[in-house]
Amino acid sequence: MGVPFEALIPYGIMLAMFGVTGAGLSKIRHMQNGGKRARHSVDQWDRVMMDRDRRLTGYLRGQTDNPSAPAGFELNNPWRLEKRIL
């Protein structure tokens, strides 16, 4: 005796919803990375370079080919210093 097709409809709905959710999350992650693929094995050097790129371009994954830094970048220091106690 075969399985009635009515029993397979909920499984099809669940499969479709998981597929829509996965595709939506993938698209959101792709858009958050500026249209680039996700990075893997990001070490401290990569984090520093991504922070520098963010300060230069305004985007975490943004890069520029301009050889000179924009105005105000010389005051945009990533180091957080304590105030001196005298």
UniProtKB/TrEMBL annotation:
Main location: mitochondrion
Gene Ontology terms: cellular component: mitochondrial inner membrane
Key word ATP-binding present: no
Membrane-traversing stretches: 7-26
Family: Belongs to the complex I NDUFA1 subunit family.
Its job: Accessory subunit of the mitochondrial membrane respiratory chain NADH dehydrogenase (Complex I), that is believed not to be involved in catalysis. Complex I functions in the transfer of electrons from NADH to the respiratory chain. The immediate electron acceptor for the enzyme is believed to be ubiquinone.
Full protein name: NADH dehydrogenase [ubiquinone] 1 alpha subcomplex subunit 1
Organism this protein belongs to: Hyaloscypha bicolor E
